[in-house]
Design goal:
Blueprint: E1 32-35, H1 37-41, H2 51-64, E2 68-72, H3 78-89, E3 98-104, H4 107-116, E4 122-130, H5 133-140, H6 144-161, H7 163-167, E5 171-179, H8 186-200, E6 208-214, H9 221-234, E7 241-247, H10 254-263, E8 268-271, H11 285-293, H12 306-317, H13 338-347, H14 385-396, H15 405-419, H16 425-437, E9 443-453, E10 456-465, E11 468-476, H17 479-487, E12 495-505, E13 512-521, E14 526-533, H18 536-552
Parallel strand pairs: 1-2, 1-8, 2-3, 3-4, 4-5, 5-6, 6-7, 7-8
Antiparallel strand pairs: 9-10, 10-11, 12-13, 13-14
Length: 556
C-alpha cells in the first residue's frame, strides 16, 4: 500500500443535490424484481450452466415469483440462443412472466436476438452501450455525440425490425442501460437517456425501462442514492419511465446502495439470488427482499423454502453460499457466544402468535424461510450454560433447573475444549448421560421400595459402596427423606437436600419421569444429580445416588 498521504486514489465527487429527499423517506412497497442469474450470474461461473441446469433454475425463479427474468444473451452464443428457444417452444414461460434478453447495440446482434424471441408473449429487449469518460476515451475513442448515436441507431432498427413480432402478438418492451452509469457525468447520462426515450416514444401505459447500473461500485451508497434521485427529478418523461437499478458489490455495499436508491425513487431492481456475478458479484436479491420483509413489507417473492432454493443454486452454479451469508448461510441463525445463547433462550418463550417478532439476536423468524430452530444454538468451548441447557431441552426434553445450568455448562465446555471442535447435539446428550445418568461408582443402587403408614414412609434399599453391599432401612416424611436417613447408617458423608424438581420425559404410556436433586455435603460443596425412571419415586432416588457419585468422584 502507498504510505500516507495517499495520492494514487481520489475521492469520488459528490452530487450537487441540495434539496435531496431520500434521507427522510421509508420503503413501503417492494420494487419490480428482475433476476439476472441466468445471464449476468451465469457468465461469472467458471463452468457456465448447461441448458438443463438453466431450465431447472428458470423453473425455480418462476416458483419464487419473479415476473421478469433475464434468460441470456442469445446473440452471443448458441447455448444462450437454444435455451431461449427451448423456453418458448416448450411453453415454459407463464403468461405473466416476461423474459429479458441482453443485446449490444449492433445491427446483426439485434437481428439474431429477434429471431431468438419469436413466439414469446412478453419480452424485454435490453440494449446497452458504455457511456463513461474513460470508456469513451480508452475503448471507443468517440466524442459524446457519436456515443449517443449508438443506441439511437440501434433502437431505430429495433422499432422497425420488431414490428412483425409485435404484430404477431408479442408484447415488446425496451430496456436501455447506459453502462457504467455511476461513473458517467450525470448531465451526459441524462442526455443519452432522453435521446433513447425520444426514439422509443414511451407512454404511461407502455413505459421504457431505464436501467442505471453501478457497473463498478466506486462511491458510497449515499452518493449512489443522490445520483438516482438526480436522474429521477430531471427525466422529462418520468411518468413513462421505470427507473431500474443494477448494483455490483465492489465496495461491499451493493445492498445498502440499492436500498438507498429505492428511497431515492427507483422502481426496479436487477440482481441475482445470492449475489453471484462478476468480480465481487451482483446485488443479492434475497438479502434486499428479506430486509424488506423484516420491516413489514412483503417482497412479493416466496422465499419460504430458502434451504431448497439454496440447494438448487449450489447444484446448478457449483458455488456455495457462504456460512455467514445473510439469511441463507448455514450459521446465520447460530449463536456460539454464551451470552447470546442465554438471551435467545430467554426471549423465545415471550414470542406470542399475532405479536411482532422480537427475539434477541435473531431479526427474522427462521421458520418463515424454512429454517429450523434446532440449529439456533450450537456449542463449542466459547458457549455458555444457557446454550447447553437450550440444546438439552429443545432436542431431548430435559428441563434443567436454573441452578444446574452452570454445572452442565462447565462439563460440556471442558469437553469442547478437549476436542477442539464444535459439539453436536448428540455429543451434548452423551456428555449429560455420562456425567449424571450413568455413574455407578462409588455408590450403586441395587434395590429400593417403600411402604407408608400413618404419614410416615419407610424404605428398604440395597446399595453397594466401593463394591461392598449394604442393606438399608430408614423412615421419613417421604421417600427422599427416608432414603437420606437410611444412608446415614453407612460411611458415606452426611449431606442435605437443597433443591428438587421433576418433570415427565415424553408423553403417553411410554413417558418416563426425570428428577433433578441438588445435595450439599457437610464440607460445603453442592452437587446436582439426575435420575430417570418410569416411577417418579425411583427417579428421585437415582438422582440422589447420581449427586453423591458426582460429589465423591476422585479429584482430577
Amino acid at each position: 500500500m502507498q504510505p500516507a498521504p495517499v495520492t494514487k486514489y481520489a475521492p469520488f465527487p459528490q452530487v450537487p443535490l441540495p434539496n435531496r429527499q431520500w434521507p427522510n423517506r421509508t420503503i413501503t412497497r417492494p420494487p419490480i424484481w428482475c433476476s439476472v442469474d441466468l445471464r449476468d450470474g451465469n457468465q461469472a461461473l467458471a463452468q457456465p450452466m448447461s441448458v438443463e441446469e438453466k431450465v431447472e433454475y428458470f423453473d425455480m425463479l418462476v416458483r419464487i415469483g419473479f415476473k421478469e427474468i433475464e434468460v441470456g444473451f442469445p446473440s452471443a452464443s448458441q447455448i444462450e440462443f437454444d435455451f431461449t428457444r427451448r423456453l418458448i417452444e416448450e411453453k415454459r414461460i407463464p403468461d405473466d412472466v416476461a423474459i429479458q434478453i441482453l443485446c449490444q447495440c449492433r445491427e446483426d446482434l439485434i437481428t439474431r436476438s429477434l429471431e431468438a424471441v419469436k413466439g414469446a408473449k412478453n419480452v424485454i429487449f435490453h440494449l446497452y452501450n458504455s457511456t463513461s469518460p474513460k470508456q469513451r476515451e480508452y475503448v471507443f475513442n468517440l466524442p459524446k455525440a457519436e456515443i449517443v448515436q449508438i443506441p439511437v441507431r440501434a433502437i431505430t432498427q429495433l422499432k422497425r425490425d420488431a414490428a412483425p413480432l409485435v404484430a404477431s402478438g408479442t408484447q415488446l418492451r425496451l430496456e436501455y442501460s447506459p453502462e457504467s452509469f455511476t461513473s458517467t457525468e450525470l448531465e451526459f447520462a441524462l442526455e443519452i437517456c432522453e435521446a433513447v426515450s425520444d426514439v422509443w416514444g414511451p407512454t404511461p401505459d407502455n413505459k421504457i425501462i431505464l436501467n442505471l447500473p453501478a457497473t463498478v461500485e466506486y462511491a458510497t451508497p449515499n452518493v449512489h442514492a443522490d445520483q438516482i434521485e438526480w436522474m429521477c427529478t430531471h427525466l422529462t418523461r418520468r411518468d413513462s419511465t421505470i427507473v431500474s437499478l443494477h448494483t455490483h458489490n465492489d465496495r461491499g455495499t451493493g445492498v445498502a446502495a440499492t436500498e438507498l436508491a429505492l428511497l431515492a425513487g427507483a422502481d426496479r431492481v436487477e440482481g441475482t439470488l445470492f449475489g453471484n456475478g462478476e468480480r465481487t458479484g451482483n446485488l443479492d436479491i434475497v438479502t434486499v427482499a428479506l430486509n424488506l420483509y423484516t420491516h413489514g413489507v412483503h417482497p412479493g417473492l416466496d422465499l419460504s423454502d430458502l434451504n431448497g432454493i439454496r440447494d438448487v443454486y449450489e447444484r446448478c452454479t457449483r458455488l456455495e453460499v457462504p456460512p455467514r451469508q445473510p439469511y441463507a448461510g448455514e450459521l446465520v441463525f447460530t449463536a456460539f457466544s454464551g451470552s447470546h445463547q442465554d438471551a435467545i433462550k430467554k426471549s423465545l418463550p415471550h414470542q406470542k402468535p399475532g405479536k411482532p417478532w422480537d427475539v434477541i439476536y435473531i431479526p427474522i423468524d427462521p421458520a418463515d424461510i424454512g429454517r429450523s430452530y434446532r440449529a439456533i444454538i450450537r456449542i463449542n468451548s466459547q458457549s455458555g450454560k444457557g446454550g447447553v441447557a437450550y440444546v438439552l431441552e429443545q432436542d431431548f426434553g430435559f428441563q434443567l433447573p436454573k441452578l444446574m445450568h452452570k454445572e452442565i455448562g462447565k462439563v460440556v465446555n471442558d469437553l469442547a475444549d478437549s476436542k477442539g471442535t464444535e459439539l453436536t447435539a448428540d455429543e451434548i446428550r452423551e456428555a449429560f448421560q455420562a456425567e449424571y445418568l450413568s455413574r455407578t461408582a462409588p455408590v450403586s443402587l441395587e434395590h429400593f421400595k417403600t411402604t407408608e403408614r400413618d404419614s410416615t414412609v419407610k424404605c428398604e434399599a440395597r446399595i453397594t459402596v466401593d463394591g461392598k453391599p449394604h442393606a438399608l432401612t430408614g423412615s421419613g416424611n417421604g421417600p427422599i427423606d427416608a432414603f437420606v436417613k437410611a444412608l446415614a447408617s453407612t460411611s458415606l458423608p452426611r449431606f442435605d437436600v437443597l433443591n428438587y424438581s421433576e418433570h415427565s420425559l415424553g408423553a403417553g404410556a411410554e413417558a418416563k419421569a426425570v428428577s433433578y436433586i441438588q445435595v450439599k455435603l457437610e464440607r460445603g460443596s453442592a452437587f446436582f444429580g439426575a435420575g430417570i425412571d418410569t416411577n417418579i419415586e425411583l427417579a428421585s432416588i437415582k438422582a440422589i445416588v447420581s449427586a453423591l457419585n458426582r460429589a465423591l468422584r476422585p479429584a482430577k
